[in-house]
């Protein structure tokens, strides 16, 4: 079967056979569109036979016949509507593929520049220069229509990045390092950008809060267009997003980097208690100083540190707050009078077993009472009481109320509502991507980076540092009509601050496989070291602001698949080679 890729969503082909339908299914196509009238030639296989084969192979079939040499505006409109309604990837065919390619180009001319469409068609082997004036007319008409009163404004960019956090900024910088002239837009409503890994050290009295904050305008790439607003809707079939004011942005490739949502409201009584009654959290910029204030003020009583069910960003952060607090109380000789509990919804101290022995030693030395399968479900701030759902070994759940003098909470976390309700989401709300390439499983011109992706990695800034170059390279490959070849191996890092001056530097990838950056003789990540603390306190902020956000990929160059299967089939996750 001869097929020619026009975009990650659609490929075109000359007349296909019944046998070709099974091949198309094996290559990941979801829909077949016939643009050829029946009985056009004696050797033609009519649409009904292709439809029957498609249904046998679990594919959708649509027949939109168009007369050769007579493609009308109604034909183009019908094709555009069909593309918006069906599931991709799509294989469209006619006698030679030219009609299908022409329909696609004329439909896309409503929001993509004609020269881009002509170049894409030419690369696929179709000369559409005869349609250039018609494409230009449709492009200009679309621009004129959107400028009319009551019509939404439509801007067009090659790459649109939704989210100006660590992931969005890093991907933009990495793309621009590779191709400085790339037309990039970043959609981000916030005025400030935060170095969130530093909030643990703010809560431990090591950093000042303002050290973790910079103005968004100061870290935004100058070559990128900044839309200081939020997205209200994703329209992937139309390759557009809708902004809060109703305006739209058309794109050739989209990167979703919204991060996740801290669901404070999921625990009754928590939100209104934060910052009061001894209730705090290092997961908020404004509350991390209150954590340190409470640590300094607490001399006796009960201190509870909580961790909700996964996934959460930086799974070690709840423990970091606890260890730094205990270290301060120990140094001040108050620890013996404080009952410290770690109440986690999980069944283990840490998800990667290699790091548990070192952590357990600190738990024992601080006298921390571990409470597994304890999930915080309610907070009564004024009365300083916390309620937990406790699951026993037989799976039965009961409620237990605990009094506290200090309560450090890690909130439940989930995908942002705008993502969870969009066509991009998986069943639980995260952007549905390949774990290796971070490419969307249905929409091949869409990628996700950071906490919002459903890849099974630890949600950390260190993960973003390795993901951003992968996404940048794959986006540019997609724009060039090539397969995504850069791969992410699930790297995440969690510098566990077990005491002031020492850190257990956990570095691991998919399946809990250890991925240390440094040799064990320099930094043994399974043991607490002072060098790891130096990295956390002195090196990592610099690495974040001046390396990662600038697109400098020190120790973060992506690996590549040695070969890539056809569209949307799963790559061999073991078949890696280093980029030369």
Note down, in words, how this protein is organized.
It is a single chain. The protein is α/β, with parallel strands linked by helices and 580 residues long. The protein has 3 domains: 144 residues, Protein tyrosine phosphatase superfamily (Protein-Tyrosine Phosphatase, Chain A, Alpha-Beta Complex), CATH 3.90.190.10; 268 residues, FAD/NAD(P)-binding domain (3-Layer(bba) Sandwich), CATH 3.50.50; 147 residues, FAD/NAD(P)-binding domain, CATH 3.50.50. The protein has 16 helices and 30 strands. A hairpin with a 4-residue loop joins strand 11 and strand 12. The C terminus is likely disordered. It comes from Idiomarina zobellii. This is Beta-lactamase. Keywords: FAD, Flavoprotein, Oxidoreductase, Quinone, Transit peptide. InterPro entries: BLH_phosphatase-like, FAD/NAD-bd_sf, FAD/NAD-binding_dom, Prot-tyrosine_phosphatase-like, Sulphide_quinone_reductase.
List the helices and strands and how they pair.
Elements: E1 4-5, E2 10-13, H1 18-26, E3 31-34, H2 47-56, E4 60-63, H3 73-85, E5 90-93, H4 98-108, H5 114-123, H6 132-147, E6 154-162, H7 166-178, E7 184-187, E8 192-194, H8 199-203, E9 213-215, H9 216-219, E10 225-227, E11 231-235, E12 240-243, E13 248-256, E14 261-262, H10 270-273, E15 279-280, H11 288-297, E16 301-307, H12 317-331, E17 338-344, H13 356-366, E18 369-371, E19 374-380, E20 385-391, E21 397-403, E22 406-408, E23 413-414, H14 417-420, E24 446-448, H15 461-479, E25 486-487, E26 492-499, E27 502-508, E28 528-529, H16 530-547, E29 559-561, E30 576-578
Parallel strand pairs: 2-5, 3-4, 3-5, 6-7, 6-13, 7-10, 13-24, 15-22, 16-17, 16-22, 17-18
Antiparallel strand pairs: 1-2, 8-9, 11-12, 12-13, 14-23, 19-20, 20-21, 25-29, 26-27, 27-28, 29-30
Helix pairs in contact: 1-2, 3-4, 7-15, 11-12
């Amino acid at each position: 079967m001869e097929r020619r890729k026009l975009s990650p969503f659609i490929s075109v082909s000359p007349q296909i056979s019944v046998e070709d339908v099974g091949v198309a299914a094996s290559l990941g196509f979801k829909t077949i569109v016939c643009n050829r009238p029946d009985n056009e030639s004696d050797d033609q296989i009519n649409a009904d036979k292709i439809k029957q084969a498609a249904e046998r192979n679990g594919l959708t079939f649509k027949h939109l016949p168009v007369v050769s040499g007579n493609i009308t505006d109604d034909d183009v409109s019908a094709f555009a509507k069909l593309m918006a309604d069906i599931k991709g990837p799509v294989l469209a065919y006619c006698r030679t593929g030219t009609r299908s390619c022409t329909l696609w180009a004329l439909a896309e001319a409503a929001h993509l520049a004609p020269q881009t469409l002509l170049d894409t068609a030419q690369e696929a082997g179709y000369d559409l220069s005869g349609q250039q004036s018609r494409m230009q007319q449709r492009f200009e008409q679309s621009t004129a229509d959107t400028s009319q009163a009551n019509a939404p404004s439509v801007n067009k960019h090659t790459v649109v990045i939704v989210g100006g956090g660590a992931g969005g900024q890093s991907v933009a910088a990495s793309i621009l390092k590779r191709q400085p002239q790339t037309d990039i837009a970043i959609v981000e409503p916030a005025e400030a950008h935060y170095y969130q890994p530093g909030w643990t050290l703010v809560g431990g009295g090591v950093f000042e809060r303002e050290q973790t904050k910079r103005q968004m305008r100061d870290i935004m790439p100058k070559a990128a267009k900044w839309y200081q607003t939020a997205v209200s809707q994703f329209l992937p079939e139309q390759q557009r997003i809708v902004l809060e004011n109703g305006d739209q942005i058309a794109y050739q490739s989209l990167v979703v980097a919204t991060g996740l949502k801290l669901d404070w409201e999921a625990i009754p009584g928590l939100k209104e208690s934060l910052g009061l009654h001894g209730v705090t959290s290092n997961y908020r910029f404004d509350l991390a100083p209150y954590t340190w204030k409470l640590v300094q003020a607490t001399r006796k009583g009960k201190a509870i540190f909580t961790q909700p069910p996964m996934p959460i960003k930086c799974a070690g952060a709840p423990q970091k707050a606890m260890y730094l607090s205990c270290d301060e109380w120990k140094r001040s000789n108050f620890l013996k009078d404080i009952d410290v509990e770690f109440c986690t919804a999980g069944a283990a101290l840490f998800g990667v077993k290699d790091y548990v022995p070192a952590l357990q030693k600190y738990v024992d030395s601080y006298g921390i009472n571990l409470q597994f399968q304890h999930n915080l479900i309610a907070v009564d701030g004024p009365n300083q009481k916390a309620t937990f759902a406790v699951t026993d070994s037989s799976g039965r759940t009961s409620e237990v109320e605990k009094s506290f003098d200090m309560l450090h909470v890690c909130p439940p976390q989930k995908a942002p509502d705008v993502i969870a309700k969009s066509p991009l989401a998986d069943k639980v709300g995260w952007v549905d991507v390949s774990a290796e390439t971070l490419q969307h499983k249905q929409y091949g011109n869409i990628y996700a980076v950071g906490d919002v992706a459903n890849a099974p990695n630890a949600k950390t800034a260190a993960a973003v540092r390795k993901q951003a170059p992968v996404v940048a390279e794959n986006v540019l490959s997609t724009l060039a009509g090539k397969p995504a070849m850069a791969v992410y191996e699930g790297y995440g890092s969690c510098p566990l601050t077990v005491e002031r001056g020492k850190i257990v530097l956990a570095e691991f990838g998919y399946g809990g496989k250890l991925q240390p950056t440094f040799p064990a003789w320099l930094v043994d990540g399974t043991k607490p070291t002072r060098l790891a603390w130096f990295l956390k306190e002195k090196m990592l902020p610099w690495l974040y602001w001046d390396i990662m956000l600038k697109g400098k990929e020190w120790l973060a160059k992506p690996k590549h698949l040695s070969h890539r299967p056809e569209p949307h089939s799963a790559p061999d996750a073991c078949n890696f080679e280093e980029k030369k």
